[in-house]
């Protein structure tokens, strides 16, 4: 059977040496996961992001794919794409703070002993990756100051999210970093106050997967809930406006995952509001991965109408950011899409069989559509389209075949902008045709308009 993450042999050794991976302190509850947690088929129906479970010390559960990353180095594709996004953010006057949160095994190395996992190697690689981001001009708070967490409280024992304690410690670190930046002096200040709302039970995402695979019942965890409001606020809590209704006037925006805004609120934004005395427009998306919230604020028009002075991008450390199509999609959208009216337009109906809705050869007239100067605009008449395969052919005979993907939680009208390559072997090629196909069969073909237009300079 196929096995991802660290080797299956290592996992089997871990399971066979049970007591070494579930050492109990007096008065604590210990348990052993079943051998089925090492099988890929156990994760076919749910929990694929939390493969493969194994026992940590005491009552901790870890997941190899999520927690045991050892090589954090950003690839040349990621560095090139992040550098391009940084240039566009700069044009909008936005300072970007990347909150690159460390995995659980890095933060709690004393809770884990796993064959093949080198804690020191993982830490050095993680710190080097942070340095890579800083070399591009991003502001990156130094989580190395918090590693390791000696309290054992930063992350939850059987859930992949940080605890409220971890959220608060991270918020303090991020706030202290931002308050040292020149842009902080330009932000409107308003004092905020945080209050404890109560304590709630949290079974835990890892517990849920373990229970489904092994049929075991694990104890609940408990999470403190806080709320943060502007001081002397009489209007109640400030909720984000519904999609498309209003534009936030806050000068700091937060994007990210369920660490920042989810089913259970760990008050990350609220703690930062208190520490910085600055309101934060929390646009994080639960389950939005690294790209969902970023693309959503772009499509919502934030950078057209009211670019944030500071954008806080909460980014869990398991994401590699090495998808070239992600950068070509986001860069086209963030830079404003088409600079002028389309130079060439084609229409067609698409399905899971490739069709060519656009060709640069009608009537024998070939337009000088050099790739590095242009981008593509796709308008599907069905907003349920979130990804498609693209086959771009150039006059040189070169072909580009790639997948364009938008996060399924992003609200959109079926319009995509996508850059043609601006460097490499295709950059100076002249566009010949654009082929499309959908990744899955559909009941009926979906109409699409494809337009080639001039891109904004970056």
Question: Can you walk me through this structure?
Answer:
The chain has helices spanning 8-16, 64-67, 76-91, 104-107, 119-135, 164-178, 205-214, 268-276, 292-299, 302-305, 324-334; strands spanning 53-55, 61-63, 95-101, 192-202, 221-230, 252-255, 280-282, 310-316, 344-350, 355-359, 374-380, 387-394, 399-405, 415-419, 431-437, 446-454. It is α+β, with helices and mostly antiparallel strands. The protein has three domains: 8-67, no CATH class; 76-322, no CATH class; 337-454, Jelly Rolls (Sandwich), CATH 2.60.120. The strands form five sheets. It has a four-stranded parallel beta sheet, sandwiched between helices. The protein has a four-stranded antiparallel beta sheet with strand order 9-16-11-14. Helix 3 (76-91) runs parallel beside helix 11 (324-334).
Report Rg: 24 Å
State the share of residues found in helices, binned by percent. 10-25%
Largest sheet: 4 strands, parallel
Strand content: 15-25%
Sheet with the most strands: spatial strand order: 3-8-6-7
Principal-axes shape call: globular
The H/E string reads: HEEHHEHHHEHEEHEHHEHEEEEEEEE
Number of helices: 11
| Oligomeric status | single chain
From the N-terminal CA to the C-terminal CA, the straight-line distance is 47 Å
Structural class: alpha+beta
Number of domains: 3
The beta-strand count equals 16
Name the average pLDDT.
90
> Uncertain spans, ≥5 residues at pLDDT below 50?
1-23, 234-246
């Amino acid at each position: 059977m196929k096995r991802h993450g660290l080797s299956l042999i290592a996992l089997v050794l871990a399971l066979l040496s049970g007591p070494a991976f579930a050492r109990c302190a007096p008065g604590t509850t210990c348990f052993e996961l079943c051998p089925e947690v090492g099988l890929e088929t156990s994760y076919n129906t749910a929990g694929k992001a939390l493969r493969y479970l194994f026992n940590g010390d005491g009552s901790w559960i870890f997941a190899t794919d999520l927690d045991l990353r050892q090589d954090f180095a950003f690839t040349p594709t990621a560095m090139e794409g992040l550098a391009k996004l940084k240039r566009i953010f700069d044009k909008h006057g936005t300072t970007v703070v990347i909150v690159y949160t460390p995995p659980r095994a890095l933060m709690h190395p004393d809770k884990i002993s796993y064959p093949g996992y080198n804690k020191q190697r993982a830490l050095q690689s993680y710190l080097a990756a942070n340095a890579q981001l800083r070399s591009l001009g991003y502001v990156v708070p130094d989580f190395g100051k918090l590693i390791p967490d000696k309290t054992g409280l930063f992350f939850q024992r059987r859930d992949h999210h940080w605890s409220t304690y971890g959220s608060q410690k991270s918020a303090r670190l991020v706030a202290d970093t931002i308050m040292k930046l020149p842009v902080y002096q330009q932000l409107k200040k308003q004092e905020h106050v945080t209050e404890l709302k109560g304590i709630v039970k949290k079974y835990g995402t890892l517990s849920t997967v373990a229970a489904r695979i092994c049929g075991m019942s694990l104890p609940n965890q408990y999470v403190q809930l806080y709320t943060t409001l502007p001081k002397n606020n009489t209007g109640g809590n400030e909720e984000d406006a519904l999609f498309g209704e209003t534009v936030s006037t806050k000068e700091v925006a937060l994007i990210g995952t369920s660490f920042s805004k989810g089913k259970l609120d760990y008050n990350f934004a609220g703690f930062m509001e208190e520490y910085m005395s600055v309101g934060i427009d929390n646009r994080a998306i639960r389950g939005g991965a690294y790209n969902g919230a970023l693309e959503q604020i772009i499509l919502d028009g934030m950078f057209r109408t009211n670019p944030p002075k500071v954008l806080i991008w909460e980014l869990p450390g398991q994401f590699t950011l090495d998808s070239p199509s992600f950068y070509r999609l986001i860069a086209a959208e963030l830079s404003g899409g088409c600079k002028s009216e389309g130079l060439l337009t084609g229409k067609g109906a698409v399905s899971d069989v490739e069709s060519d809705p656009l060709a640069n050869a009608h009537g024998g007239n070939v337009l000088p559509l050099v790739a590095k100067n242009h981008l593509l605009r796709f308008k599907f008449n069905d907003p349920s389209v979130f990804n498609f395969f693209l086959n771009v052919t150039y006059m040189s005979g070169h072909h580009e075949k790639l997948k364009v993907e938008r996060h399924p939680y992003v609200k959109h009208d079926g319009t995509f902008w996508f850059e043609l390559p601006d460097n490499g072997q295709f950059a100076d090629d002249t566009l010949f045709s654009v082929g499309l196909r959908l990744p899955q069969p559909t009941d009926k073909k979906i109409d699409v308009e494809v337009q080639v237009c001039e891109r904004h300079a970056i």
